[in-house]
Each structure stands twice: as C-alpha cells, then as structure tokens.
Amino acid sequence: MLQQLGQLPMGWLLTALLLFVVSAGFSIGRIRAERYSLSSSGKFHSRPNYHGYYVAMWGLAPALILALAYLLLAEPLARDLLTRELPAAFHRLPKAELVSYLDAVSAVSAHGAYDGSDRVFTAVTHRYLELSGSLKITTLAMILLSAVLGVMFARSHVSPDFRARQRVESGAELFLFLCAAIAIATTVGIVASLFYESIRFFSQVPVTDFLFGTRWNAQTNAEFGAVPLFFGTFMIALIAMFVAAPVGLFAAIYLSEYASGKTRAYVKPLLEVLAGIPTVVYGFFALLVVAPGVRSIALWINATLIDVGLANGPVFAAQPTSALAAGLVMGIMVIPFVSSLSDDVINAVPQTLRDAAFAMGATKSETIKQVILPAALPGIVASLLLAVSRAIGETMIVVMAAGQRARISFDPSTDLTTITVQIVALLTGETEFDSPKTLSAFALGLVLFLVTLCFNLIALRVVQRYREKYE
Amino acid sequence: MSKMPDSSLITPKALKHLKKRRAADARFRLYGIAAIVFALSALALLVIAIGTRAYSATTQYVYQTEVLLQADLVAPEGETSEAEITRNIEGFYTLVRDKLFTEFPEATQSQATRQELSELVNRLAVLPLAERVAANPTLIGKSIKVRVPLSDDLDLYFKGSSPKDVTVRVGSAGKVQTDAEGSINLTGTPGLSKVVSTRSLLEEGQTTGSVLLAGGDAVARVEALTADAARLTLLTGELEDLTQTPLIAHIIPLPEAERPISDQQIAWAIALKKAGNARRVLHTSLLTHTDSTYPELAGTLAAIVGSLLTMMVTACVAIPMGIFAAVYLEEFAPRNRLTNLIEVNINNLAAVPSIVFGLLGASLLLGTFGLPRSAPIVGGLVLALLILPVVIIASRASLRSVPPSIRSGALAVGASRMQAVFHHVLPLAAPGMFTGAILGMARALGETAPLLLIGMVAFVAEVPNSATDEATALPVLIYSWASNAERAWEPMTAAAIVILLSLLVIMNVVVVFLRRRFERRW
Description:
- The complex is a heterodimer.
- By secondary structure, chain A is mainly alpha-helical.
- Chain A has two domains: 2-162, no CATH class; 209-470, MetI-like fold (Orthogonal Bundle), CATH 1.10.3720.10.
- Chain A contains 17 helices and two strands.
- Chain A has helices at 2-5, 10-39, 48-85, 88-91, 95-109, 119-155, 164-202, 207-212, 227-258, 261-276, 279-308, 323-348, 351-359, 364-393, 396-401, 419-427, 436-470; strands at 216-217, 223-224.
- A two-stranded antiparallel ribbon of chain A has the order 1-2.
- In chain A, 44% of the residues are buried.
- Chain B is of the alpha+beta class.
- Chain B has 19 helices and ten strands.
- Chain B is flat and about 110 Å long.
- At the A-B interface, helix 3, helix 5, helix 7, helix 9 and helix 10 of A face helix 1, helix 11, helix 12, helix 13 and helix 14 of B.
C-alpha cells in the first residue's frame, strides 16, 4: 500500500491540490459574502470578490508553504531515514559511494517498485518507496488540513463591515515584497554557500598556501597555490581590455559625436549583437579561427627571427590554444559593454559644454578630448571597470581556448589557465563533495565573486554619482 | 581662406596651425571609423566562419539501397514485439552489409577487406531503420528502400574537406592490358601528362599520396605513372570499364597511412557515388536524432528538448517573480534602507559572473536540497536566478515609462493603490515587461557555464520527458561537440550553433515586433 503511494506523481497532485484550494476558498468566501449582502440591507464594505480573495489567500498561504517545504526537504529527509535503517555494512562505505547508491535507489524507484536479482537492492528500494509514500501521504493530508483550517478561519471573518479589500491588498503587498527580497536571498545564498565550502577547504589547506602558493595541481589533490590562476586571469583580461578599451571607446565617441542619425541607427544595434552572441559561440570561434591564426603568426615570427639571426631558438611557444587567442576574442565580446555605457555617459554630457567649446573655436576632436571626455571620465571609467569584471568572470571562451596548464608566463602565445577554467575543470565529471579538490573550486569562486563584486560596486557607485551630477 | 583682408589673427603661422588641428580632427574621426570597422568585421568574420562550416552540415551523404527484410535476420526467433526488433541492430546491420558485399564482390575474398568495406557504414546507423520496422512489423518479408548515413570520414571526403582530392579529367583512355605478372598497364593515354603535372604541383615533387583512376564503374590505383602510360591495380569493378570515357583521375596528396580512409574505401565510395547509391541528401537527422558518439549519427533533438524544458522552468520562476519584484520596487517600496539595499543588490547581481550562479546551484540545490543532478529543474532554477535582475531592471524601466497621470487619474476616481497599479499601470507597461522578459530568456538560452557545474554536460542519448529527467542543453551540447577531436564534429558544431542562433534571432525579432507594435510615447 505504502509502496504504491510512493509512486504518486507529487508535482501534478500538488498543483491540482493548490488550484483546488484556491478556487474552493474563493467560491466559499464569495458565496458567503453574497448571501450576507442579499439578506442584510446594510452596505458591504468590500465587494464580494475581495471576500473570496481573502478566504482563498488564507487557504493558499499555509498550503503553499507546506508544498514548497515538501519539494525542497522530502528527498533529503527520505534518504536520511533510509540511511538510518540500512545495515551497518553500508555505513562503513565512503560517503560518495553511499550517495551514489542512494541516487541509484531513488532513480530506480521513480519507475516503480524494483524486483531484480539483487535482493538487498530490491529490499532497499521497497523500503525507500514505503518511506517516500508515507512522506507523500502525510504531506497531502497536512496540506489539506491546513487549507481547511485556513479557509474556515477566514470564512468566519466575512461580514458586512469586514475590510476584506485592505487585508487582501496588504497580503498582496507582502507577496510583492517577498518577490523583491529574492534578490537579497540570492546574494545571501551565494555568499553563504561560497563561504561555507571555502571554510571547509581552508580547514584542509592553509589560506596562505592558497593565496600565495605558485604551484597549482588540484586534479591530484596535491598543490593548491592559486597564483598562476590569478596571473592567467589577469593576463587574459588585460589582453581583452587592450582590444576592448580603445575599440569600444572610439566607437562610442564616433557614434555619439560624429555619426549621422542613420549610421547610428544601424551601427549601434549591430555592435550590441556582439553582446547577444552566446559565449560558447565565441569559444568555438576562438578555437576554430583565432587560435590557429595566432599560432601560425607566432610560428612565422619565430622562423623569421631565426632567419634574420636575432634568435637562436623559437621565441614564442606557439601553443595550439593560447592566452592571446582567448584574450582577443574576449576583447571582441566586451566591446559592446564598453561602447554602450560610454555612449550613454557621453550623450549625458550637457550640450552647453559642447557649445561653449565650439564657441571658443575648438575643433570637434579638441572639444571631445578636452571637454567631453574629462566631463564623462567617471562614467567611462565605470564602463571599463564593468568590462573588466565581465572579462574576469567570463568562462566559456577561456575554457575552450585558453588551456589547462597553470603557469606564469608572459609569452602571449602560450596557454594559460584561469580561475573560471579551473572551477569548470574541478566541478565537471565525478565530484565528491568532501575532497579538497572539489572544495577548492568554491574557494576560487569566492575569490572571483569578491573581486568582481569590488569592481561592480565601485562602477555602480561612480555611475550613480555621475548621474546625480548632471540630472 | 587664401584671400582674406589684412587681419592680425590670420597669419601664415596661424593658418598652418589650423591645418594641423584640422588634420588632427580628421585623424580622430578616422580612429572612430577604424574602431567600428574592426568590431563589425570581427562580427562578420565570426558569422562567415561559422556559417560556411554549418553550410556543409546541411547535407549528408547516405548509402541508398533496397533491402529485403528477411524474417530470419530481422526477427530471428519469430519475435515481433517492438523492443525485440529494435534491439536486434545486428540483424539489420547484416542486411545492409550483405547488400554492400553483393555490390562489391571482390571485398568478400578476405576478412580484412570485408572489414574495410563494412566500415563504410556505421553499425548503429541502422537504428532508425530498426525503429521503423519495429513500429510497422508488417514490413518484414518485404523489400524496402533504405538510406543509411555513410561514415563521417567518407562524408568529409565527398564534401571535399578531408582528405582533400583534386580531380583531373584524363579524357579518353588508350589500351588496357594485363601482363604476365598480373599487373595492369594502361598505355597510349596522353591525358595522363596533366595528372603528372598536377601531382608534382600538389605534392611538391614527392609521390607519397595516391592517384585513383575512375572510368565507368571501375576504380584503379596508379602504381607507376608516366606522361602517357600507367601501371594500375584494380580496386573495384571490371577491367574493361577503365577504357570508358571520361576517365577521371582523383589525386589525393595525403599519404594513405596518414588518413582515416584507405584508397580501397575511397574507390568503393567513388563507385557507389557513380552508381547513384551514395547520394547527398538533406541532413534532417541533425534535428531528429539525439546525441551520439559518431558524428554522422548525432543530432540535437535531446538538447533542444532539454533546453526547452529548462527554459520553461526559468520562465515560470523568473518572469512572474521579476515582474512582481519590479512592481513592488517601483510602485510600493518606501524609501528606506532595506529597499535601498535590495536595489544595490539587484544591480550588483546583474554583474555577478554566471559561473558563480553555477556554484550556488551545485552547493545549495544539489548539495543541500539533494535535487537530481543534470536535471532541467535545477538548470532552470539557476538560470532563473541569473536572469532575475535582467527582468526586474527591464520591468522597472517599463513601469517608469508609464506617466504618473495614469496613476493619479485612477486614484482620483477612488481606486486603491493596488487597483491603480494592477488595473491601469500594469496593462500599459506589459509590452515593455514582456520584451524585457524575452531578452532575459534569450540570455538564459545561450548560457553554458552554470549548466556545466550542475552536471548538464553528461552524455544524454534519450529525449528527456520531464524536468527531473537527465538532460542536456543546446549550448552545452555545442561545448561538448566542440571539444571532440574528430574533424567531422566541426561542421556539426557549427550547425548546432546556427540552430541556437536562429532561436535567439527569433526571440529578438519578437522583441522588435512587440516594441514596434505596442510601444507608445507619452
């Protein structure tokens, strides 16, 4: 019996139940209000619909909370209960193996009771189905009960001078506030999970080794000196900014000061297309076109230098994937981040400043260089900071085109690795949540988050100040 | 400027200086144009590089033939249940392979050549045929037309990318004779001089590559070559066919040892193509197949469905929440520290690297809450958090563009604030909100990094049915195809990118349409 209950499709059942609670609550409240208004001669404060909403709200709120709690907690709870009942032999297993065993149990149970040659496994899946069945039936009963109680409680309030509309509206406002607070919850979640896992990592590897060590060898759980990763990230972001800063800035200046309205109308959206292309596409482009190009140019320079007699051996490493290739493509990707925001701030510089400069006889370029750019400088700096933050956090381009080897080298044609590349490398494939290898990815994520946070906060602050200045 | 009245300001020196300043101005303008040209040509290069490669993946070479579905091979134990027939890939493969053997009887002589010929078609390539028969068992015992994809290396060869060959028309052939040692001599063929010159040009004087001569249904390999004669080894077909015009030489500069397909296989493929049995057809399996380890059999269906499921979860969470949050912040929030904090938070979240959201998903959703790995529900939730700030910011801008007179008017006739917002402001702001939501969804559709961290990179060979099944997404598929070493994956990856980009273009066209149709200036 319980085993059959264990196979209930809870997603659909919960949805149906919640819909039923809402519609039943609404009709109960509304009908009651209408009865009153027919029988009594006095005026109702709120329209019957609001009484309906009020009752439905009271029915829905506890049911919804219970349903969410079920969705998030039922699976861990069932596994926990099951683990406790497992024979002692299981408890001696490594944690990762136990988890994958339980994964298999819940995966098999999703398709109904399992009957196979492995008798232990069969028994375990049956027990698991029983446990989740009892959890499911308890949850459904609790939801129904709480909904009935809520509806009955709210129904007793329905009366001519009950201010149902105000109640409903403050309930709705609370709901809207909760939606807005999700943003905070997300940040808290990010910070908490990164800190929690990082602290576990730093209890196994000293912070100083991580921040100042120069040898990174995480795949073998051996060395966790992240300096080469910081270096690679910095190098590639620098190359990207060498492309993006001049190109983005000049494009913004041309578009806002020189271009005709028609040119602007065509070129600006085209530039913004660059920001809309998925980064994995850029990564493929880097791997396919740019990296081989960089490699052959580096090889050609090597050969020429040897021919001329300036070098005895190859000067550039000329790897098939290189920091330069990744940096160039990343630069192309962040051009629109620089150009759009710079364009905005240049446009925000008041026309009177321009007119004054022209009246003094300045040429257009002199006006731009000596009047507009200084006035727009804070905003431009902010746009560059945001672009840097984007470049540091960019993942797919470097994963596909920058390489895996952690080292410090100033040769742009060599392959470097970055923070994001290592996070992906450490967390894809088989992951055990306790090894320092996996945990180090979270420490790297923490560094990444904090660094980009600084850049973003400064940039946002500057933009805000700047807006206030001219508005 | 030249003939000006005497004036103390316009001196030759000043004019010279002015010229300099004007030149500087022109240069500055030029830098701007150069920057835009650079950015746009990078975009053009990207589109062309991917477009040309994707174009070659729009078609595929298949082996087309007619096979008799013998019951003893297709359903050996008289089984006609769907699962049994589908599982019996070996039987179907034998059918197709035997058909190849009857076309090239010379291959049946040794085990090695049998193996070589079998490699023209992948074993798993018959799976769609098996499924077709399983769905309709009455076909058993009948003769049906089948198309199975040729191996990826032959496909590349036919499309002229790897190994590259150069064809030279030799023209009419002279005499063909077999000498005492059994080797074939072609004499009196002046057209061969063209082959000699082309070959020395291609191989730079060396003769490590191969030259195949094809005439009629026969293909032969050139062992020794002079200006008008050649010694040949017959690879397939009848000897007499070689005297048929036009005789065509295929020069393959890459040595046989360095390429994945042998001369013999190329010869068979050429013969198949000549007979019309190897043809180029539209590559529909790209959209109807799921992922595979063999490029000629792989398709994007499972990834597209996975992406759609993920997007559904994202849309259900991010769009309502984003819109409600925007309504609160724009219409109800009191100016206090808490709402200020929320605002800073949202602006900051919009700039947090996407991979950090992946870490959040891996640690919180997979670790703490124990949600299934590789499932669209987890991917969808992570992406929803990722695009929430985008939706909120766009929705707020849209709400702000509704003039205050609308609110005042509603309030003036006795509406509550909630009624004013939900009955009057929100309908007017809706088009703007939806464009923001679609742009956010477009961003989520192209996002890869967070999905890698929650395990959506796993190889998925089945179309997911629900949001809790194991699945992958289109950008992740692109990533995993791009990391495969074989050359044949390159056009496949480009084609998958084109599919992804077309979905994004469609979403953006909808946005432009909504803007044009509904946006009003107050």
